[in-house]
UniProtKB/TrEMBL annotation:
Record protein name field: Uncharacterized protein
The keyword Mitochondrion is annotated on this UniProt entry: no
Organism: Linum trigynum
Keywords, ordered alphabetically: DNA-binding, Nucleus, Repeat, Transcription, Transcription regulation
UniProt-listed SMART domains: SANT
Domain named Myb-like: residues: 8-60, 61-111
Keyword Transcription regulation: yes
GO cellular component: nucleus
Gene3D superfamilies in UniProt: Homeodomain-like (1.10.10.60)
DNA sequence: AATACCCTCAACCGCCGATAA
DNA sequence: TTTATCGGCGGTTGAGGGTAT
């Protein structure tokens, strides 16, 4: 059923001009309209009430942030999307000054592509079928004052080696936070399967206690994005040629 | 310089649930 | 209980700007 305000004649559509913005802004900030459907007539606008509401909510509201999304906001959006799916309005409630529309656009134009490039399905946040896999020979050693030079290793076979390949690592059953993998290759993406369960679900907290520095790598578990923290670092692995 | 293609994002559309009459 | 209206939401569109050819 059409909204009452939308069925009236002389309803403008399309982009808002500065004069319209000024009329709407002045009206809303100086009145408390009972309903959005009454706004166009009272504010002297040839728009429907829905359009006025949208313009106010998404653009004119004084509490809106105008700057680009921060890294923290992006991380928050990814986390919330994993939990809530495409419930943009709910996600927006956790990000003050951001609108559902803005977050939706940001997701569709930027975040989606980033996740895909990291080998993750943006809808499910699970791993996509890897276009390339490289079984690697990897070793773990601690990079921490208390545990320096402790070392253990595990091996697997290798199909190919490319410094920028997306690769999947199946850690040994006994992986734990005493055995933090060391990664070379900044910007690479390392996918660690089952690390959360292997570490009792608190690998990040434990890893922070282990200490070290953070490498510029992207690290994911197969079922959730792991939170980075500057207090620990993944260090070394080597490909089998 | 001209054209095609791509990307971003503001705005619209259609649907849904809540509420009032 | 039914109907009309509204606010709110998610999906989609298309204008306009940027980039590649």
């Amino acid at each position: 059923m059409a909204h009452n305000c939308c069925t009236k004649e002389k309803v403008r559509k399309g982009l808002w001009c500065p004069e319209e913005d000024e009329k709407l802004f002045n009206f809303i900030t100086s009145h408390a309209p009972a309903s959005w459907s009454s706004v166009p007539k009272l504010a002297g606008l040839e728009r429907c009430g829905k359009s006025c509401r949208l313009r106010w909510m998404n653009y004119l509201r004084p509490d809106l942030k105008k700057e680009c999304f921060s890294v923290e906001e992006e991380t928050m959006i990814i986390h919330l999307h994993r939990m809530l799916g495409n419930r943009w309005a709910q996600i927006a409630r956790h990000l003050p000054g951001r609108t559902d529309n803005e977050i939706k656009n940001f997701w569709n134009s930027c975040v989606k592509k980033k996740l895909i490039s990291r080998g993750l399905d943006p809808n499910t946040h699970n791993l996509l079928p890897a276009p390339k896999t490289a079984h690697i020979n990897y070793s773990y050693h601690l990079n921490n004052n208390n545990y320096n030079n402790q070392y253990c290793s595990s091996t697997s076979s290798s199909h190919e080696s490319s410094p920028l390949a997306l690769f999947s690592v199946a850690p040994p059953d006994d992986i734990n936070v005493d055995h933090v993998p060391f990664i070379h290759g900044h910007g690479d993406t390392l996918v660690i399967n089952n690390i959360a369960s292997a570490a009792g679900g608190s690998v990040m907290e434990e890893a922070q206690q282990v200490g070290g520095l953070l490498a510029e790598c992207c690290i994911y578990s197969s079922d959730r994005l792991l939170d980075f923290d500057d207090s620990w670092r993944l260090c070394d692995f080597s490909y089998l040629g």
